[in-house]
Structures are given as structure tokens and as C-alpha cells.
Specification:
The chain is of the alpha/beta class. 35% of the residues lie in helices and 23% in strands. It folds into 3 domains: 2-55; 71-199, Vaccinia Virus protein VP39 (Rossmann fold); 283-404, 3-Layer(aba) Sandwich (Rossmann fold). The protein has helices at 59-62, 75-92, 112-117, 129-137, 149-159, 177-187, 201-207, 223-230, 264-275, 281-307, 319-328, 360-365, 379-385, 387-392, and strands at 2-3, 10-11, 13-20, 38-44, 51-53, 100-104, 121-125, 142-143, 162-168, 188-199, 219-220, 235-243, 249-256, 312-315, 338-340, 357-359, 370-373, 394-397, 403-404. The longest helix has 27 residues, at 281-307. It is globular, with a radius of gyration of 21 Å. Bound molecules: ligand DWN and S-adenosyl-L-homocysteine (SAH).
Length: 405
């Protein structure tokens, strides 16, 4: 029995992935003995309909001055956030110099740099110092702290209230969500808009994308569960926009209650969530069965390739890959190495299974027979980039189903 982080009612896990390391905890061989593990389990709260982790490591173990994920490693995401900046500037900021924009979890400034370039007053709250410093290089002002109610108060005292609060792929990372929401409630101007997006539960269920489940992702939101959270703060969803990024995400536009019109699409999607069973425990029992099947199929394919004496390497050492590798039992015999474009991951080993992470050039200079695509969410970008490899090699995919193409 665990207490729901949103409504405090009891809930049970529907799946355990076993003992898991820190998803972005890439490490040198000297540190293998000290590696930290916790039991990765997800559960569904039948009261407020929120899917969430049961246990989560301390935040400082995940977000620190050597955080391995830099948002700008994907061109597709850079484009996605440029469009978001352009649209919101036009739609939600007044044509004067008094605007103030706050971003929670700005990482390397991939989104906020567009506001900075336009000369708009802004601040990014980013606890992982190394990525926050990268944001500074991109012209973005940052505070390197974990956003919560206290940080919100400090921002109000120093800069005033915000016209626009942004949060991409970060609300789902924060277990002390009530403190964060209390901060947002205070920080947002009466007519202000809070825009956030996160991987969407409907997509995770539909695509069996269980690799979205790892330490950093404590919540797997639906419109219904977000609505239940916002009710505590007299905030409401005024519009939603489904996004293709990160395997299917939902963008939520939120305002103080009664301040703006609510789009029909919100009501429609809430009904759709009921129809597809997102509010039923049975859905998650079924999801667990599909996850187990996916695991068995993936390991079988890798073993078959191995028996034929063919080479297979991993493509992109994503956070998500940590769940897949450790849950499926993928080891160095089955996967030669993983190539990745992020310099600070290269030369290290993957969390848990300790598979070497090598520079992208390793892949380019000696194509394998098969590449296991851990960054399946960037499929279009990678497929286009790898047109030469596509003529010779094959891809192993596991979302939405295990297959070779
Ligand atoms: O929620 C989160 C999302 C936004 O980003 C964070 N908790 C952590 C992170 O998740 P991820 O690591 O699964 O993100 P990506 O964007 O799926 O993967 C990024 C990794 O993939 C980087 O290490 C770079 C690598 N990559 C690559 O090697 N070649 C990415 C692309 C597009 C490539 O072509
Ligand atoms: N917004 C970026 C980064 C997402 S990764 C994008 O969409 O690509 C999640 C980020 O949230 C990390 O950079 C992490 O350091 C940050 N983070 C985690 N907890 C936070 C908190 N309480 N307040 C602000 N940022 C936080």
C-alpha cells in the first residue's frame, strides 16, 4: 500500500520492473561497486486516476551538476520548442515591454532562448547546474534551484508575477507536485497562462511504451488526472494539444478558474479517456501483460541475432533505455555498445548493465548488422539522418511493437 502523491489515498503497484539504477546514471568502471538501485514500480490510484511511481530516489541523485541529458541533442525537439515559443509569444504576451516569462526545468535553454532573443524578461529555474550553465551561454537567465513554492515566492519578490509559465517534460518529474502547484498559483498573474507538456498516458498505454517509466518520471498524466490535481488550486485546463514528440505528449494550457474560455477539446478528450479505459485498473493489468510479452519478444530477437553471429549495437543511450536494458536483461553479450551524440555520456557505461557508451562516430565508421533504436521517439529525425545505414543495416524496434525493419 502506498499513498497517492496527489490525493493521498492508498493505491497498489500494477507492475514491478525489479531493481533499477538511476536512469541517467552513466558511470565509469571505478564506480560500479557503489551503484545505487531501487525497486521501480508503477501504480494506478483509483481515486484520482493518476498513474505514478511507487518509489523514487532522492532528487539530488538524479538532478545535479553533472546531469547527462541536454535537451538540444535533438534537432526535432529544437524545432518543436521554437514553434512553441513563436506561437505563445504571439498568442499570450502583450505587445509591450512588461512581459515576464518563467520556465520550470529550462535545461540548456532550448525553449527559453527564443524569449531571451526577443528581449523578453524571463527566468529559467533549472536545478541541474551543468545544463543551466549551458542555458546561460544561450543568453538565458537562470536560477539553479528546484522549483517549489518557496522558489516561486523568491521570484515574485525579485521580479514580480508571471504572464506566462512554461514547463516541458518536468511537471511529471516532481513528486512534491503540491508545492510546485502552490507556487504556480501564486506566481501566475490573474490573466496569465501556464503551459506544460508531458508524455501522455493515452500514448503510453496505446503503444506499450513502458520505457517511459523510469526514476525521473514520477507521473504519467492524463487530462482526467491533471484536472483532479488542478482542482486543489482553483486552476483549470482551458485547452489541450496533442503532440507527436517523445512518443506522444499532451500540451495543457491552464489558467486561473473562470478567467478564460474552455475549449470543447478538453471535454471531448476527458470522454475519450473514459472510453479507452484510462480510468480503470484493468487497463493497467492488461498493460503489464503486454509489457511482459514485449520483453520476451525483444530478448528472443536479440538472442536469435546473437546466435547467427551478427553484430547489434544500441542507438542512443536514452534515459528510457535504462528501463528496457535492465528489465529485459540485455547484457554486453547481446549488445556490443551504445552510440550516443552526448559528449558526457561517451566513454562511460550504462547504468546497471554496464554496456559501453561510445561516440556516434563509432557507429558511422563501422556499421553493425542491426541497431537497436532506443531513441524510437526521434524515429523520423534518425531515419532521415541514417539514410546510408538504412541501405545496409536493419533496425530493431520495440515500440509500438517488437519488430525488425
Ligand atoms: O523527460 C525527459 C526527456 C525530455 O528527455 C528527461 N527525463 C530525460 C530525457 O529523456 P531521454 O534521455 O529518453 O531523451 P531522448 O531525447 O529520447 O534521448 C536523448 C539521447 O539520445 C541523448 O543522449 C542524445 C541521444 N541521441 C543520439 O545519440 N542521436 C538523440 C538523437 C536524436 C540522435 O540522433
Ligand atoms: N524542459 C526540457 C528538459 C526536460 S528534462 C525538455 O523538455 O527537454 C527535466 C529537467 O527538469 C531537467 O533538466 C531537470 O534538472 C529539471 N528539474 C527536475 N526537477 C525540477 C524542479 N523541481 N524544478 C525545476 N526543474 C527541475
Amino acid at each position: 500500500m502506498k499513498k497517492c502523491l496527489i490525493c493521498k489515498n492508498n493505491f497498489e503497484p500494477f507492475i514491478s520492473f525489479g531493481m533499477m539504477p538511476i536512469a541517467n546514471g552513466f558511470l565509469p568502471s571505478e564506480k560500479f561497486d557503489e551503484e545505487y538501485f531501487f525497486e521501480l514500480q508503477a501504480g494506478f490510484c483509483s481515486s484520482c486516476k493518476t498513474v505514478q511511481l511507487v518509489n523514487q530516489p532522492k532528487r539530488e541523485m538524479m538532478f545535479h551538476d553533472n546531469y547527462a541529458f541536454f535537451s538540444s541533442t535533438s534537432k526535432g525537439m529544437a524545432n518543436h520548442f521554437r514553434l512553441l515559443a513563436e506561437n505563445t509569444m504571439k498568442k499570450y504576451l502583450a505587445q509591450n515591454d512588461n512581459n515576464f516569462v518563467v520556465e520550470i526545468g529550462c535545461n540548456d535553454g532550448i525553449l527559453l532562448k527564443h524569449f531571451a532573443k526577443a528581449g523578453i524578461n524571463h527566468i529559467g529555474v533549472e536545478p541541474s547546474l551543468n545544463v543551466a550553465l549551458e542555458a546561460n551561454k544561450n543568453g538565458v537567465n537562470t536560477i539553479s534551484e528546484f522549483f517549489d513554492e518557496n522558489v516561486a515566492k523568491k521570484i515574485i519578490d525579485k521580479y514580480g508575477n508571471a504572464d506566462l509559465i512554461l514547463a516541458a517534460n518536468v511537471m511529471c518529474h516532481i513528486p512534491y507536485i503540491h508545492s510546485v502547484m502552490a507556487g504556480i498559483k501564486k506566481l501566475l498573474k490573474p490573466k496569465g497562462v501556464f503551459i506544460f507538456e508531458d508524455p501522455y498516458l493515452g500514448d503510453i498505454v496505446e503503444k506499450t511504451s513502458y520505457d517511459q517509466i523510469y526514476d525521473e518520471h514520477v507521473f504519467y498524466f492524463s487530462i482526467t488526472s491533471v484536472n483532479n490535481l488542478l482542482k486543489y488550486y482553483d486552476l483549470e485546463i482551458i485547452d489541450i494539444f496533442h503532440q507527436k514528440v517523445h512518443g506522444g505528449s499532451m500540451r495543457y494550457l491552464v489558467s486561473h478558474k473562470g478567467k478564460r474560455n474552455i475549449s470543447d477539446s478538453v471535454i471531448k478528450q476527458i470522454r475519450k479517456e473514459e472510453e479507452i479505459g484510462l480510468n480503470l485498473l484493468q487497463t493497467y493489468d492488461n498493460l503489464r501483460k503486454r509489457i511482459e510479452k514485449s520483453r520476451d519478444q525483444l530478448i528472443k530477437i536479440l538472442k536469435d541475432i546473437n546466435e547467427k553471429g551478427k553484430r547489434v549495437v544500441g542507438y542512443a543511450a536514452t534515459s528510457k533505455s535504462t528501463t528496457v536494458i535492465n528489465y529485459c536483461g540485455i547484457n554486453k553479450n547481446l549488445l556490443e555498445y551504445i552510440c550516443d551524440t552526448t559528449p558526457i555520456k561517451q566513454g562511460l557505461f550504462t547504468p546497471g548493465a554496464h554496456i559501453p557508451v561510445k561516440p556516434y562516430s563509432e557507429f558511422l565508421n563501422n556499421y553493425p548488422d542491426y541497431a537497436l533504436l532506443f531513441a524510437w521517439n526521434h524515429f523520423d529525425e534518425i531515419w532521415t539522418k541514417e539514410h546510408n545505414y538504412n541501405k545496409i543495416g536493419k533496425w530493431v524496434l520495440y515500440v509500438p511493437e517488437v519488430k525488425i525493419i
